[in-house]
Amino acid sequence: AESLKEAAEATGRFMGTAIADGRLGDSTYTGIASSEFSSVTAENVMKWDAIQPQRGQFNLEPANRLMDFAAANAQQVWGHTLVWHSQLPGWVSNGGFGADELDGIIQDHISTVVGEYAGEIAYWDVVNEVFEDDGSLRQSVFLNTLGDGYIADAFRYAEAADPSAKLCINDYSTEHTNAKSDALYDLVSGMLDQGVPVDCVGFQMHLILDQYSASDIQSNLQRFADLGVEVVITELDIRMDMPSDDGKLAAQATQYADVVGVCVAVNGCAGVTIWGFGDADSWVPGTFPGQGAALPWDENYQPKPAYDGILQGFGAA
Ligand SMILES: OC[C@H]1CNC[C@@H](O)[C@@H]1O[C@@H]1O[C@H](CO)[C@@H](O[C@@H]2O[C@H](CO)[C@@H](O[C@@H]3O[C@H](CO)[C@@H](O)[C@H](O)[C@H]3O)[C@H](O)[C@H]2O)[C@H](O)[C@H]1O
């Protein structure tokens, strides 16, 4: 295979990346983004604080830039994200709205944003990170004002706005079998029983070098796929303690191969998206001081051993 997207395509899957809006004017960046990936996710510009910064004021230009880029490169677009406790503008998080008004605000946000791109965005992260690591529902203005019904309602609003889009619930630290993935499993199977239009489950997979079990990740994802929903790896990166060295980079390549290989082994795993592709654009160093080098291209957009690891995971190297 000449590229990651071709390797993925050969297995009937997509290969995606998060796109940093600020890089779309950089030809080295866009060269890789257009040639290696068949799917793109907005890293930030489709989040509530960016797309509806003030009530009723929708800022679509940055999102449209991504839509235009994807259209020009025949790429699928993954919408990220509609209802999330983080990157929420103050007018929502501190609005002090009653239940009916907040419910209306969520419905208006979803119908406007999803409606704007109806038929153009293939997948949406409808709700993001609704659980705490212990499996309890995360405290948020949504849960505290509306109760847990806000989750199913968000899916119904998205379905009404674009029946053609696949609607996903997305979270992190759910790749292994644990209290959080068990709670997610119970929520998804419960919603399916109630006829809530959940089409897919996104596993972010912000992993740490050498801290994973491929066999456990595989059986965990398979149990979700056995519910009849698609499973997707949505934000993959594998961070290491800096400085990196040849041994760590080789281990990282093996870990990328194993994780991508899990997606290939799981019937119902639709694709893999990495959370950016160049270490210079990664969120990791800013959030985890002393850690980094999490992505398949280095600071100078040169491919790392991890690039071949991903090809290997798709059975192309
Ligand atoms: O945290 C990693 C993942 C976890 N899963 C959900 C997924 O959405 C999340 O992505 C990360 O989500 C983070 C916020 O939670 C993003 O970080 C934000 O990214 C934004 C856009 O670049 C930053 O906002 C800019 O900040 C600048 C200086 O502070 C301002 O000048 C800009 O106006 C402002 O847009 C925020 O500070 C920064 O916190 C990361 O880029 C993004 O990679």
Report on this model:
It contains 13 helices and ten strands. It has 317 residues and is α/β, with parallel strands linked by helices. Helix 6 packs parallel to helix 8, helix 10 (214-225) runs parallel beside helix 11 (246-265) and helix 11 (246-265) packs parallel to helix 13. The N and C termini lie close together (8 Å). The model has no long low-confidence stretch (mean pLDDT 98). Helices cover 42% and strands 18% of the residues. The structure holds ligand G3I. The site of ligand G3I has 8 residues, from loops.
Give me the secondary-structure category.
alpha/beta
The strand order across the widest sheet is 1-2-3-4-5-6-8-9
Oligomer: single chain
The level of helicity is 40-55%
Number of helices: 13
Number of strands: 10
What ligands does this structure carry?
Answer: ligand G3I
Mean pLDDT: 98
Overall geometry comes to globular
C-alpha-based Rg, rounded: 19 Å
Order of helices and strands: HEHEHHEHHEHHEHEEHEHEHEH
Biggest sheet, in brief?
A: 8 strands, parallel, barrel
**What is the distance, rounded to the nearest whole angstrom, between the alpha carbons of the first and last residues?**
8 Å
What percentage of amino acids are in beta strands?
A: 15-25%
Low-pLDDT windows of residues: none
Family: Belongs to the glycosyl hydrolase 10 (cellulase F) family.
Active site: 235
GO molecular function: endo-1,4-beta-xylanase activity
InterPro entries: GH, GH10, GH10_AS, GH10_dom
